[in-house]
Amino acid sequence: MDDIKNKYLSELSDELKELGEPAFRSKQVFKWLHEKNVKSIDEMSDISKSLREKLKEKYDFCTLNVVRVSESKIDSTKKFLFETHDGNYIESVWMQYKHGNSVCISSQIGCRMGCRFCASTLDGLVRSLTAAEMLEQIYEITRITGERVSNVVVMGMGEPMDNYDNLIRFVKLLTCEEGLNISARNVTVSTCGIVPKIREFANEGLPVTLALSLHAPNDEKRKALMPIANSFTIKECLEACDYYFEKTKRRVSFEYSLVSGVNDNDEEAEELSKLLKGHNGHVNLIPVNPIKERDYKRSDKSRIYAFQNRLEKNGINVTIRREMGRDIDGACGQLRRKHTEESAGVSK
Ligand code: SAH
Hints:
By secondary structure, the chain is of the alpha/beta class. The chain is 35% helix and 19% strand. It folds into two domains: 4-58, DNA polymerase, domain 1; 65-347, Aldolase class I (TIM Barrel), CATH 3.20.20.70. A hairpin with a 2-residue loop joins β3 (89-97) and β4 (100-104).
């Protein structure tokens, strides 16, 4: 059975028509699902009981079980660990900024990209999430916090471009007028650099912000951190990003996690500046969040600022990512991993 929250309004209309329902009814149902975020079909109070029963027979209705909520003591960040219907765990983060509330969602359970510094990928990929499961992370957080979400970043667990069709469905449902109606400009999708998918994404006509996880100034160093670099060169990635800018007029964000002694010295800052000169985008420096399974250390503050200064001097737009929820296992996949290990009795 397909999930009712996976359906576009047009699909729902066609399917409800087959059940003998007028077109306006599907809009009513759709709004209950995506604008009012009901937790069950029975909460659709102006829909007849007989139609509600038919919907329950015909469709699945995705819900996520809240397993754990960690609240940061440093800022107001909250991290949610959810359980899916098939007993898997995913995590999402809620962040409050001056300009609005932001939710970071997972797109897959685990990940198969194998980036060396990332906790999400240590046990590989379990499965991709459906559009409904991606949406439900935001809907459930909205229900719990009682606050409106204005920004969504697909930067949690998983590689969104490895779950392309569901990603597109998710973005379209999230940004549609009858749903949460979040502006596509306020949605960011981060990828490790699956080049053909970046190009396909550019052709979708969705003005979403794209982030490319770069993390190194040349292919050799990138290969040591990210296996995907064996499939696509940095040059190919940057050409795809240029194409993305050309099509969407959205500046690309280049993510660069600083790892002490690995990619953070002055020569590397120079090399990165040369690499990015003339490309429309800006660099987002992220001090790496060390995971216990790997020996990577974060660069110290003075090194981070020195790296930033070099880029700035070379005319590259650069910001240091404000770290949110560092005290609550803020980086991808860390909370899920901790939970599974604790459940299995593995000590930290
Ligand atoms: N798979 C996608 C999105 C998920 S990760 C991607 O690769 O972009 C979101 C960002 O956090 C990526 O730039 C990723 O490389 C980075 N990241 C993952 N683990 C990290 C860690 N431990 N410390 C710092 N950044 C990390």
